[in-house]
Write a structure and sequence with these properties.
By secondary structure, this protein is an alpha/beta fold. The protein folds into two domains: 128 residues, Response regulator (Rossmann fold); 100 residues, LytTr DNA-binding domain (OB fold (Dihydrolipoamide Acetyltransferase, E2P)), CATH 2.40.50. 33% of the residues lie in helices and 31% in strands. The protein is built from seven helices and 15 strands. The strands form four sheets. A five-stranded parallel β-sheet has the order 2-1-3-4-5, with helices on both faces. A five-stranded antiparallel β-sheet has the order 10-9-8-12-11, with helices on one face. The longest helix has 32 residues. The protein is elongated and about 60 Å long. The model has no long low-confidence stretch (mean pLDDT 88).
Length: 247
């Protein structure tokens, strides 16, 4: 069986306060080969946490939810995933499209209508990959990427990164010899994609480490240039295997 290409999968988040509505969407997602269900949330606040901790390509979003309605939640996001509204209320359709939602599905949801919407999402995703292909290939081959730092585009050489720390909506990149620390507005999940060409591992919910820079490991702490990075207990076996350690 050929190895699955993660770029061809749309990683999905379901946001709906109704249990049965979430389950229906989850079942529909499972039936589509190019969709992968990542998480389900019952309100916008849970969804915000899910977006910060996961790479989400496509969000299925209800509108009438307690606390914060779906349209207001989507408008509050600086970085919006592809979004499809799934609702029983037609009066929000115009607002939904103004928020650049790619489709607006009415409950009860038919599989035919669902498939039409997700095929549209796949086409947009593929077009985006094509547009960014030349840049992404160059960055992978040359071992660098650019980030926004204080209104400037700054080049980051992947082999100069010691580790990356996630801080809610921002990340801090620690470079070799402690010569510079860069802060940029993005997610840790997004940084995982950028450093794929290097020998990196997410060792904690808030840290990605360059394994080539690890000097020692003690008491669930990695030491790199006098800095100590925590390792989650469930990540320790994978970390030891990745650095080639055997008892």
């Amino acid at each position: 069986m050929p190895k699955e290409n993660p770029k061809l999968l749309l990683k999905c988040l379901v946001v709906d306060d109704e249990h049965m509505a979430r389950k229906l969407l989850e079942e529909n997602i499972k039936q589509i080969p190019f969709l992968k269900h990542v998480a389900s949330c019952k309100n916008a606040f849970e969804a915000m946490d899910a977006l910060q901790n996961n790479q989400i390509d496509l969000m299925f979003l209800d509108i009438q939810m307690p606390g914060l309605i779906g349209t207001k939640f989507l408008s509050s996001l600086d970085k919006k995933p592809l979004s499809i509204f799934v609702t029983a209320y037609p009066q929000y359709a115009l607002e939904g499209y103004e928020l650049e939602a790619i489709d607006y599905l009415m409950k009860p949801l038919s599989m035919e209508r669902f498939m039409k919407a997700v095929n549209k999402a796949l086409k947009i995703h593929q077009d985006s990959l094509k547009i960014n292909n030349l840049v992404s290939v160059k960055e992978e081959n040359d071992g660098f990427f650019f980030i926004n730092v204080e209104y400037s585009l700054v080049k980051v050489n992947i082999n100069e990164i010691n580790y990356i720390e996630g801080m809610k909506d921002y990340v801090k990149i620690y470079l070799t010899n402690n010569k510079k620390r860069l802060i940029t507005k993005t997610t840790l999940a997004s940084m995982e994609d950028k450093v794929q060409s290097g020998n990196f591992m997410r060792v904690h919910k808030s840290f990605i480490v360059n394994l080539d820079k690890v000097e020692s490991i003690r008491n669930h702490q990695i030491k790199i240039e006098e800095n100590e990075i925590p390792v989650s207990p469930n990540k320790l076996p994978e970390l030891l295997e990745s650095i080639g350690y055997k008892d």
